[in-house]
Design brief:
Elements: H1 29-46, H2 50-64, E1 73-75, E2 78-83, E3 92-96, H3 98-101, E4 109-113, H4 114-121, E5 125-132, E6 140-146, E7 152-158, E8 163-164, E9 170-174, E10 177-182, E11 185-189, E12 205-210, E13 219-223, E14 230-235, E15 242-247, E16 253-259, E17 262-265, E18 273-277, E19 280-284, E20 297-301, H5 302-306, E21 313-316, E22 322-329, E23 333-340, E24 343-352, E25 355-360, E26 368-375, E27 382-389, E28 395-400, E29 408-412, E30 423-430, E31 436-443, E32 450-453, H6 468-473, E33 480-484, H7 494-498, H8 506-521, E34 530-535, H9 537-548, E35 555-559, H10 578-581, H11 587-593, H12 598-601, E36 610-616, H13 625-637, E37 642-646, H14 657-675
Parallel strand pairs: 32-33, 32-34, 34-35, 35-36, 36-37
Antiparallel strand pairs: 1-2, 2-3, 3-4, 5-6, 6-7, 7-8, 7-9, 10-11, 11-12, 12-13, 14-15, 15-16, 16-17, 18-19, 19-20, 20-21, 22-23, 23-24, 24-25, 26-27, 27-28, 28-29, 30-31, 31-33
Pfam family, one: Peptidase_S9_N
Organism: Cryptosporangium japonicum
Keywords: Hydrolase, Protease, Serine protease
Length: 676
């Protein structure tokens, strides 16, 4: 069923007249007082109920369960894991051997206790990962965030002594880009002072920093433009070649090879993705390139490419139903993940003297997703495969590319909710322009409260996956869950994404509205019992559902959202997304951007559904001012709205399991209250 909606005239008043601009002051006393007052009202309304307390406890139990799979990343002889639970809310970074990992209770070697570090240093540390020097893995850089923001503090850590390196490499808090050149040298992009960051807030300058020298003395290797998104550099450990990337916008980047200290641009499309491994150059196309269609994965010998040859071999060529999802190298093989109508498959490709061979990996269970979790492209052909689905608890499989060795189930998770009576079905809705839009429905098949989720941006596909918290809080209580694979995402590759860029953004919202209407037409639910949720770009999606299609929904949850599209490019990382949404400072582009700017679409006398808006003060990717101003404007118009702002947590909205359980329980309690 197709649904169309004419957008109303929007207010393009000069932003200087925005009476809620003061709420953009992230940590100002006034805005924080405003946020705390709203938090108190929302907590009083929902958090004291028996249903909220039960849901929160159930979600927390799932998040902290000792029987969760401790997912690992192989680096050399060790399997590394980061673990959070009730006793270790900030987490433990640890490692073990494959032999130990096969046991129900492996013997873990503790490397870093983040809770102990936070207590010792009096800082609210949140783990952001470790980057090893390959292929030896005897040195690493640890990234820690204050409160969950995107900005990191970087410190060198010795995985042998299990201590931070005294006098080692260290960077203060910034949105940095750091990579190993060798044991004593780094490529580093960070905040070197005025002019060193792009308008998007990422590094504009890359330098070569040698051990034992001040950061101020680091040698400049490359500089981008202020209008770029970012620049960064990396070394391929096998060839010793150094590469540079200058991202001119979110989807276009110039690639260079450093030759005798000078950058030489590589002759590949700006919107393609590339990788170099074991003498192979792969090029993943986002647009047509000569005889090669968009969405293809090409390969060529890198030295022949440097010599001018352009005869690629296509490892993947899409059709109208298929798309490349990802690819991963082992030492001697390439693992290629693809979709056919949002159903995953995985193939193992190997280069031989007669060309590339391909064999299917382990078969994929129905309505499940397989994800290559870990490879070590310098040490062997082992790969770890995560398998799960909406009703299929996670399993972790170990396989070896090119080997007859059967798949080994290393770990499996027990069910977190009873799937009895539940089923998964895929349907197709018809959008306003006639496009078939796939979506999944998980439930009992009986009409009732239904939660619809979507994203539709940045070529990100929404794939089947197990969510124990959702299962307990929603499905086990009789709710139905639906996922819309709308344009803007990556379910059908670049064409699906590019169909909803900029002036065509409305197609993503028409797709989502069509799925909502189709759910009602099929008898899955009614408009009064249909809820919708989404975060980040998905928050922009749900903001548009609230303002453009209010009659289709009974309740809307908007999380860490973009909502003021007139100013999004001036707030935090927003400038980096203009390739997705457009430039509001260009009058011609503002004319179409204004049609999907929820802050400007709010109007009196509309049948708005019930609304919960959540965000995080420490989100330094999507500015909390979006959510604050939207709520203030709704209140000015006299509509009811609930609001909660986590004072920390970053773009994920929460930084530990206690906060995650609270935030999710708040959303579910709200939805049950409004849709039951």
């Amino acid at each position: 069923m197709a649904v169309t909606r004419q957008t109303e005239a929007v207010d393009s008043t000069d932003i200087s007249q925005d009476q809620f601009l003061w709420l953009e002051e992230v940590t100002g006393d006034g805005p924080l007082e405003w946020a705390r007052e709203h938090n108190t009202r929302t907590v009083d309304a929902y958090a004291g109920s028996p249903r909220f307390e039960a849901i929160q406890a159930e979600i927390r139990e799932v998040l902290d369960a000792e029987t969760r799979i401790p997912y690992v990343t192989r680096r050399g002889e060790y399997l590394y894991n980061f673990w959070q639970d009730a006793a270790n809310p900030r987490g433990l970074w640890r490692r073990t051997s494959l032999e130990q990992y096969r046991n129900d209770k492996p013997d873990w070697e503790l490397l870093l206790d983040v809770d102990a570090l936070a207590a010792a240093e009096g800082e609210n540390w949140v783990w952001h990962g470790a980057a090893f020097l390959a292929p030896s893995y005897d040195k690493c850089l640890i990234s820690l965030s204050v409160g969950g923001s995107d900005a990191d503090v970087t410190r060198e850590f010795d995985p042998v002594t299990k201590e931070f390196v005294e006098g080692g490499f260290a960077l203060p808090e910034a949105k940095s880009s750091v990579g190993w050149i060798d044991a004593d040298t780094l490529f580093v992009g960070t905040d070197f002072g005025p002019g060193s960051m792009t308008d998007s807030g990422y590094p504009r300058v890359v330098k070569r920093w040698r051990r034992g020298t001040p950061l101020d003395d680091a040698e400049t290797v490359f500089e981008g433009e202020p209008t770029d998104v970012s620049v960064h550099a990396w070394r391929d450990p096998l060839s010793g070649l150094d590469f540079l990337t200058r991202s001119t916008d979110f989807y276009h980047r110039k690639r260079y090879l450093l030759v005798d200290g000078a950058p030489r641009e590589l002759d590949v499309p700006d919107d393609a993705e590339i990788s170099v491994h074991a003498g192979h150059l792969t090029v993943e196309l986002r647009s047509e390139w000569g005889a090669y269609p968009a969405g293809s994965l090409l390969v060529i010998d890198f030295e022949r490419f440097r010599a001018g040859e352009r005869e690629f071999q296509s490892l993947f060529t899409p059709d109208d139903r298929s798309a490349l999802v990802s690819y991963h190298w082992t030492e001697h093989a390439l693992l290629l993940s693809s979709l056919i109508d949002v159903k995953p498959s995985l193939e193992v490709l190997r280069s031989t003297a007669d060309g590339w061979t391909r064999t299917p990996s382990a078969p994929v269970p129905d309505w499940c997703t397989v994800r290559v979790l870990s490879t070590d492209r310098f040490h062997g052909d082992e790969y770890l495969l995560a398998v799960d689905g909406y009703l299929t608890p996670p399993e972790l499989h170990r396989l070896v590319a090119g080997s007859d060795e059967p798949a080994e189930v290393l770990k499996h998770s027990p069910a977190r909710f009873d799937p009895t009576g539940l089923s998964v079905n895929q349907y197709f809705a018809t959008s306003a322009d006639g496009t078939r839009v796939p979506y999944f429905v998980v439930g009992t098949g009986r009409p009732g409260p239904t939660l619809l989720n979507g994203y539709g941006g940045f070529e990100v596909p929404l794939l089947p996956g197990y969510d124990g918290g959702l299962g307990r809080a929603w499905l086990a209580r009789g709710g139905t869950y639906a996922v819309a694979n709308i344009r803007g995402g990556g379910e059908y590759g670049p064409r699906w994404h590019q169909a909803a860029l900029k002036e065509n953004r409305h197609r993503a919202y028409e797709d989502f509205a069509a799925v909502a209407a189709d759910l009602v037409a099929r008898g899955v639910t009614t408009a009064e019992q249909l809820g919708v949720s989404g975060g980040s770009n998905g928050g922009l999606l749900t903001g548009n559902m609230y303002t453009r299609y209010p009659e289709l929904f009974g309740a809307v949850v908007i999380q860490v959202p973009l909502l003021d599209m007139r100013r999004y490019h001036q707030l935090l990382a927003g400038a980096s997304w203009m390739a997705e949404y457009g430039d509001p400072d260009d009058p011609a582009q503002w004319e179409f951007i204004r049609t999907f700017s929820p802050y400007h679409l709010l109007a009196a006398d509309r049948p708005y559904p019930q609304l919960l808006v959540t965000t995080s003060t420490r989100d330094d990717r999507v500015h909390p001012g979006h959510a604050r101003k939207f709520v203030a404007r709704i209140e000015e118009l006299g509509y009811p709205v609930d609001y909660y702002e986590n004072i920390e947590g970053g773009h994920g909205g929460a930084s530990n399991n206690e906060q995650r359980a609270f935030m999710r329980a708040l959303s579910f309690a709200f939805l049950w209250d409004k849709l039951s």
